[in-house]
Amino acid sequence: MLHNGLSQGYKFYVGGRDGWVTSPSERYSQWAERNRFQVNDTIFFKYKKGSDSVLIVSKDDYYSCSTKNPIKSLTDGDSTFIFDRSGPFFFISGNSDNCSKGQKLIIVVMAVRPKPPPSCSIFSHNTSFFTATC
């Protein structure tokens, strides 16, 4: 994982050194569970161009490994995807056989939290009014 600056988010390498493969050293679900993803974070998929691809799909297509109606296709071998919203994202291999063998990934992006207001101290001078210092 690398940090690209405050507004850019982090860059995550799917599969680490293994990349996007059918038999990673760590299951993709375990990898996703131990990371925290936020809006503007980027994930990077490395795979052999022409031999595989990454599809962003619906939840139903994820569970059925259907490659017919992807939301988006990543095919260049060094593919990046930037999370533009919170919620779940479903990724599968463009090869349905590979997907059936477990080459698929769900990432849940955390909700955007507003920054808390500055803390204030409230002082009571008497019972009729209060003074706040921020």
Task: Give a written overview of the molecule.
With 134 residues, the chain is mainly beta. The protein has a single domain (2-133), classed as Immunoglobulin-like, CATH 2.60.40. 13% of the residues lie in helices and 35% in strands. Strand 2 (10-13), helix 1 and strand 3 form a beta-alpha-beta unit. The protein starts with a strand and ends with a strand. The model is unreliable at 1-6 (pLDDT under 50).
What is shown here, in short?
The protein is mostly beta strands and 134 residues long. It is built from three helices and ten strands.
Radius of gyration, in Å, reads 21 Å
Number of continuous helical runs: 3
- State the CATH class: Mainly Beta
CATH level 3 topology: Immunoglobulin-like
What distinguishing features does this structure have?
mainly beta; Immunoglobulin-like; four-stranded antiparallel β-sheet; 3 helices; 10 strands; 13% helix; disordered N terminus
Indicate the topology.
Layout: E1 2-3, E2 10-13, H1 28-33, E3 42-46, E4 54-57, H2 59-64, E5 72-74, E6 78-82, E7 87-93, H3 96-100, E8 104-109, E9 121-126, E10 129-133
Parallel strand pairs: 2-3
Antiparallel strand pairs: 1-2, 3-6, 4-5, 4-7, 7-8, 9-10
